[in-house]
Structure formats: structure tokens, C-alpha cells
Write a structure and sequence with these properties.
Elements (H helix, E strand, L loop, with lengths): L1 H98 L1 H28 L2 E4 L5 E2 L24 E3 L2 E2 L3 H4 L7 H25 L7 E2 L6 E4 L15 H5 L4 E4 L7 H21 L10 H12 L2 H5 L1
Antiparallel strand pairs: 1-2, 1-3, 3-4, 5-6, 6-7
Helix pairs in contact: 1-2, 2-4, 4-6, 6-7
Length: 316
């Protein structure tokens, strides 16, 4: 009886010790698992911190580069601001001088001298290529007696003289072969018209250079084999074409049209004469004179020469 009690007591002690050992082992395993999870979280945070550190380094480098660029731009702006300030002072001084009576008079005198010089140079063109009116079978009338048109805004109702009655350096400019070219057309008449157009083209180019007016349709001089260039596109531009760089439009190859008929298409030659008259109209508009019409090449040239050689040209 006493032995059985002792056995039971020792068995209970052994069982309780085993339970305690199991509990301790379980707690140890749980702690190990927690430590492993903490280690994994720590490694993940280290990776995140490393990535953030790399990004911060890159951002710092970018900030330094941008700071250098900004400092360069600030220096450029300071230089530009200084130049602008100097230019503004010069402009104010120039405006002050012009607003004064002496400055305005000086400016008008310079303009008159420039106009007088232009008038003299263009008068030499008039002597080189005189445009006259054929009055009789062998008589020619000088420019001054030709009825002239008035300035823009005050037109005179004067009927322009027939194109066939005008000559340039003694040559007629007959437009009939440009519209009705045939096998029976007089070849000498065609050649004379081409020579006359060469004279007109040369005279117009000289006048434009003296007046410092860039011609809308530039002339390629070649005597009786001259050409005129047209930079306008032959077709209407599409919406996609309008998005092209403007540098492309500057490099557009011009289309040449002949100012003569021999071996050429009559339509192209007639269009060349039309463009040449447009250049003369451009010069007339520059000096505020109305054109006599698209079919009066010599008449428009005569009016241009007459107006430039008048006293009104210097006084404007």
C-alpha cells in the first residue's frame, strides 16, 4: 500500500517534468520562429533602405546637375539683361533725339538724300532701257509726255496707251505670239519680244536692288533667254503639310518659267510674262502707285520709272 503511493507520486512527478520539458521546447520553437520572421523583416527593410539610399543618391546627382544648369542660365540671363539694359538706354536716347526738332529734321534730310540717290540710280536705268511711245511711223515720244496714273487712293481716270505703241530700247513687246503661236508666226518678231523681255527683266532687277525690295518672283537673267522663278506650290497644301518645319519651306526648289517663246510652251511663257508684271506691280505698290493692269508690262514699267524720277518721290 505504501509502495503504490510512492509509485504514483513518482509517476506524477515524472509526467509533470515531461510536460514542462515539452512546454519549454515549444516555447523555444516559437521564439526561434519569431526570430526568423524578425530576421526576414529586417533583411527586407535593409533592402528597402538600400533602394531608397540609391534613389536618394541619384536624386542628389540630378539636383546638382540641374543646379549647375540653372546657374549657367542665370548667368546668361544676367548677361542678356545687361545687354538689354544697354540697348534700352540707346533706344531711349535715339527716341529722345528723334523727338527733338533737330533730330527729326536730320532724319528727314537723310531720307531725302537716300531717295535722291535712289532716284539718280534708277534714272540711269531709264537711260539704259528707255521706254518710249511710238507716235508715228518713225517717231518716238519720251516718257514724260505719257499720261500717268496718280498715287494710291487718288486715281486719275486715264485710259492706258496700247501695249503695242510702247517700245523699250526701240523694241516692241508684242504679246500676240504668246497666245497664238503658229507655224506662220514671224520668228524675228518672237526674237524681238524675247529681247525686249530680257531688257525689262534686267531693268526690274536693277530697280528692285536700288529700292532694296526683294522681288516676289526672282529673275534669272540671261538676255533674251531669261527665266523667272516661282516659289509658290503647285497644289494646295494639306493639313499634314502645314505641320512641316518651316526650314523645309525655305528649301523648296523654285519652278522656272521662260521669258521667251522659242522652243517653249506658250502657256509657260505667257505665265512668265504675267509673273514679271507682278514684280513690276510689287515695285509700284512699294512707292504707292496703282498698277495699270496685268497686260501692260511696258506701261507699268514706264509709270514706275516716271514716278521715281518725279519730285514727289523725294518728298514722300
Amino acid at each position: 500500500m505504501r509502495r503504490s503511493k510512492v509509485f504514483k507520486k513518482s509517476s506524477s512527478l515524472l509526467f509533470s517534468g515531461w510536460e514542462h520539458a515539452v512546454q519549454v521546447k515549444t516555447e523555444s520553437l516559437n521564439q526561434l520562429n519569431e526570430l526568423e520572421e524578425m530576421r526576414e523583416r529586417l533583411e527586407a527593410r535593409k533592402l528597402v533602405i538600400g533602394n531608397m539610399s540609391m534613389r536618394c543618391k541619384l536624386a542628389t546627382e540630378d539636383a546638382k546637375k540641374q543646379e549647375e544648369m540653372l546657374s549657367t542660365e542665370v548667368r546668361s540671363l544676367l548677361v542678356a539683361g545687361t545687354s538689354l539694359s544697354v540697348a534700352r538706354k540707346r533706344l531711349q536716347e535715339s527716341n529722345r533725339l528723334l523727338t527733338e526738332e533737330r533730330g527729326y529734321i536730320k532724319l528727314k534730310n537723310v531720307q531725302r538724300k537716300l531717295r535722291a540717290r535712289q532716284q539718280y540710280m534708277i534714272s540711269q536705268v531709264s537711260l539704259l532701257y528707255p521706254v518710249k511711245i511710238l507716235v508715228g511711223p518713225a517717231q518716238e515720244q519720251e516718257l514724260e509726255s505719257y499720261p500717268s496714273s496718280s498715287r494710291l487712293g487718288n486715281y486719275s481716270v486715264s485710259k492706258p496707251i496700247n501695249q503695242g505703241s510702247l517700245t523699250i530700247l526701240g523694241l516692241h513687246l508684242t504679246m500676240l505670239p504668246f497666245t497664238k503661236m503658229s507655224f506662220f508666226t514671224d520668228k524675228r518678231e518672237v526674237q524681238r519680244s524675247a529681247t525686249a523681255l530680257g531688257y525689262v527683266a534686267h531693268g526690274v532687277s536693277l530697280i528692285a536692288s536700288y529700292l532694296q525690295v526683294p522681288l516676289r518672283y526672282p529673275v534669272h537673267l540671261g538676255g533674251s533667254r531669261s527665266y523667272i522663278n516661282d516659289y509658290a506650290p503647285s497644289v494646295e497644301p494639306t493639313s499634314s503639310d502645314l505641320l512641316w518645319d518651316t526650314a523645309l519651306s525655305v528649301n523648296v526648289k523654285p519652278v522656272e518659267f521662260p521669258l521667251f517663246l522659242e522652243g517653249q510652251d506658250t502657256t509657260r511663257a505667257a505665265y512668265a510674262v504675267f509673273l514679271l508684271n507682278k514684280d513690276i506691280e510689287q515695285l509700284l505698290n512699294f512707292i504707292s502707285v496703282k498698277s495699270l493692269g496685268p497686260r501692260h508690262v511696258l506701261a507699268n514699267l514706264k509709270e514706275l520709272l516716271r514716278t521715281v524720277q518725279s519730285s514727289e518721290f523725294i518728298d514722300t
